[in-house]
Specification:
This protein has about 290 residues and is an alpha+beta fold. It is built from 7 helices and 5 strands; from the N terminus they run ααββααβαβαβα. A hairpin with a 2-residue loop joins β1 and β2. α4 packs across α5. The longest helix has about 90 residues. The termini are far apart.
């Protein structure tokens, strides 16, 4: 083998060795890169694990604090309930010392309250029936009298009492206590309704204005008011048959006006005769006894 051949062989060996070494180096470098990548991934996983651990620790602390708060609140409620229970037991102990006579007194008081409540209910029911009777009486009176001017005759209920007001100009001539024929017809219609209620009492009141009056035997408005009341009473008794036992005649003079006496219109309203249907207390309490 000549020198040239030896040189070529040697150079080929070096080149082959060089190629093999470069390839292996690249392989090792790739492995190293992969290891670095794996290392970095493990480092990231480790960091995440540490972060998760720290987060779980914080959450656990919060949950522990919340649970401790709930425990404290429940303990306060238990203490409150115990206190209320002790108070209730003390009250029961106090009640237990009530004597038999005291308990009986309380029982009777409760029974009295119940009886009074029942009485009040009966009273209200009786009042309602009485109001119904008054309303029926007013309706009958207005129906009997017809469409007579309310300025001449007015029928009303005030505080449970029926009033029939008849004007002076319808009943009497000026300064007189003689009942006019027209007024007698009106009194007859009123008497017809009153006769249908034979148990009721009524009062006839004479009223005047404040103008001084004196004529003949009449020396003042007292005399005039009384004479006018007795004139109406006699007609109701003698001409229309109402029982005198249920009639009262009264004079009120000028002292119960319904209007001012400062003008003619007011004085005219004050000159009137009033028939008052008197409350029958015995009949009212009979209504209560029916319950």
């Amino acid at each position: 083998m000549n020198l040239k051949q030896v040189s070529v062989a040697a150079l080929s060996s070096v080149m082959l060795f060089s190629c093999v070494s470069t390839k292996k180096l690249k392989q090792e470098q790739e492995k190293n890169r992969q290891l670095d990548s794996a290392y970095n991934a493990l480092q990231n996983d480790l960091k995440k694990c540490n972060d998760d651990k720290a987060s779980l620790g914080a959450d656990a602390s919060k949950k522990n604090a919340s649970l401790q708060g709930e425990i404290d609140a429940l303990q306060k409620q238990i203490a409150f309930l115990k206190e209320n229970n002790n108070v209730a037991l003390k009250q029961l102990q106090d009640l237990s010392v009530i004597s038999t006579s005291q308990a009986e007194s309380i029982k009777k008081s409760l029974e009295n309250i119940g009886a009074k409540d029942a009485y009040i209910q009966n009273l209200q029911s009786a009042l309602a029936r009485k109001d119904s009777l008054n309303l029926a009486l007013v309706t009958n009176l207005k129906g009997a009298i017809g469409n007579l001017d309310d300025q001449d005759i007015n029928i009303k209920v005030d505080k449970g009492v029926v009033y029939i007001d008849i004007s002076d100009k319808l009943l009497f001539k000026s300064g007189s206590y003689d009942v006019t024929d027209k007024a007698k017809a009106v009194l007859g219609k009123v008497a017809t309704v009153l006769k249908n209620q034979p148990d009721i009492d009524f009062m006839v009141e004479g009223h005047t204005d404040n103008v001084s009056f004196q004529r003949g035997v009449l020396i003042d408005n007292w005399d005039l008011s009384v004479k006018r009341a007795t004139s109406v009473v006699r007609i109701l008794q003698n001409q229309y048959g109402l029982s005198p036992a249920h009639i009262t005649a009264a004079g009120r003079s000028e002292y119960l006006p319904v209007s001012s006496n400062d003008d003619a219109e007011g004085r005219s309203a004050n000159r009137r005769t009033r028939i008052v249907i008197l409350p029958q207390l015995d009949q009212f309490f009979k209504l209560l006894e029916r319950k």
